[in-house]
Amino acid sequence: MTVFTLLEIISALSFIAMTAYLTGRSRFIMRCARYPFSWVSQFPLVVLFAFLAITGNYNTLPWGEPLVTTRLIGILLAGIAGGPITGFCVGLICAGYLIVIDYSAIAPALFIILAGTFSGMLRLHFNFHQFTPLMGAGVALVAELCQIVFIALFPGEPVTQFPNLKALIFTPVVSMIGVCLFLYIIKWIEAEQDIYGARAAQLSLAIASRTLPFLRLGFNSHSAKITANIIYELAKADAVSITGRYKRLAFIGKGTEHHKPGEPILSAAVKEAITSKTMKIINTPSDRGCPFPYCPLKAGVVVPLFSGDKVIGTIEIARVNEETVSELDIHIADGIANLLSVQIQLAEVDKQRKMREKAELKALRAQINPHFLFNTINIIMSFTRTDPDKARSLLGSLATLMQRGYSNQDELVTLQYELAAIMAYLEIAMSRFGDRLDVAVNVDDEATTALIPALSLQPLVENALNHGLFPKLGSCLLVIEAYIEEDTLIITVTDNGVGIPPEKLTQIQAGHSEGVGIMNVHQRLTSLYGTKYGLTINSKPTFGTEVWLRVPFQESAAVQKEVGSCENKSSYC
């Protein structure tokens, strides 16, 4: 093989390599190749590979007559990338062109139609990414050998059309190298993009993990500023900008002189990203559309942030030099935007959940059973003449319950405060039971200062009295105990009442009971502290019910402050 022949082969393969590189870099073409079975995807593939095949007619190899070309490479790649319809269409276009320029080339024209269809049939059994360069080389070898046999057996074909010995040897090799080279370049670009994607994903996760505590507080200027600083530090960008829909929330890096937080959005690219809800890649100052002529930022990528289907802002990674936006920048910006959008949505969900829990808590506080209220008033009225002191005490207990129901107290209260309200409730309840009810309260001193969610214990006591003890005939006993065990506050409410039937207990534990008391308490506890904590119910019909309440031990801030001040004083404190 001469140097001239080698240069001719390199020239032909260089054009194929260039086409492969441009194809691999085109997201649109690669998406069409991965999902080719629609006319929207097949049309671009037909145009691309028909151009490659027709151009191959002029990439001649110096092996005498007939002229040996690389057109079969484009035909085979059309079928491999687009399937049988794409392969057939490209083969048909190239065959028509071949007959126009050489009306006697009927056999090669028919064969390239068959070759495109054959390679397309293989595409039905393999995904595009499953076609390795070695598989492509095998398809090219089989196709070239079949072409030689087809031309030799085609009736009426002149002998001059049959390839010479050199063509018989080297043409399959060139086709194999061409198809193999095309697929290798595609695989190389995909691997490179995967590496970029992996680096971007790793960086995005690092950024997301550091920004999560702040974004959970909401998407605002404070959280945006912290997030922008973290992205600027980890992404090594020249500038990072985070905006809302109408104004800039945070800006870190070069250009802070005119891109100031709190001011309206200036960049046309950012406005376009918000309006179109799509990523905007900036390569030149004209793409950015900044009204300040001396803005140092030239290139960048802007990605919208979503809450559901609504755009709530953008994130931008900017560079000071033109045409410096890399694939890594695009992957990083897109990954960060997706993760931040998820975090913002989770923060919104968390906010809605807390609002719902507060509404449920307010409803629980305001829920004073009218029947209980009327009975209490009647009992007080009956005692006004027979036992005025008792009536006065019951009025005080009722006032305590009323004040507690309508006050806007904190979500967390001390166990001592909760027990004070429960004792007021029990004093009224004992007036209804008479001598039938005995109450025992055993609470460790350390447990009295522990913090528990408001109204988490009273519903347990109410259920024990109303559903466990009140229907019972005979003496009734209610026991309330509280103690600390391994940094966990445990409160038990035990009664010797009628118990809970197994089917009813199953419904309560599954959250299907009609009442909101017990399950409301359990859901609030698990939501605040996790599934390790909450309520556990054990009941035996006719023997009674025992309910365990478990929460992490937290001491009241006032007690902690008092202890801390004593530690800082003398031993006589």
Would you kindly provide a written description of the structure presented here, covering whatever features stand out?
- The structure is a single chain.
- The chain is built from 20 helices and twelve strands.
- The model is unreliable at 158-162 and 560-573 (pLDDT under 50).
- With 573 residues, it is α+β, with helices and mostly antiparallel strands.
- It starts with a helix and ends in a 6-residue tail after the last helix.
- A hairpin with a 3-residue loop joins strand 11 and strand 12.
- The strands form three sheets. The protein has a five-stranded antiparallel sheet, with helices on both faces.
- It has helices at residues 3-25, 27-34, 39-56, 71-82, 84-101, 106-123, 133-153, 165-215, 221-235, 268-276, 285-288, 327-366, 370-386, 388-406, 415-433, 445-448, 458-469, 502-509, 517-529, 557-567, and strands spanning 239-243, 248-253, 280-282, 299-307, 310-319, 412-414, 437-443, 451-453, 476-485, 488-495, 534-540, 544-552.
Percentage of β-strand residues: 5-15%
Strand order of the largest sheet: 2-1-5-4-3
Shape descriptor reads elongated
| Main β-sheet description | 5 strands, antiparallel
Cα-to-Cα separation, first versus last residue: 103 Å
The averaged pLDDT comes out at 79
> How many individual helices?
20
How does the helix and strand content classify structurally? Answer: alpha+beta
Helix content: 55-70%
Low-confidence stretches: 158-162, 560-573
User: What is Rg?
Assistant: 40 Å
Instruction: Please tally the β strands and state the result.
Output: 12
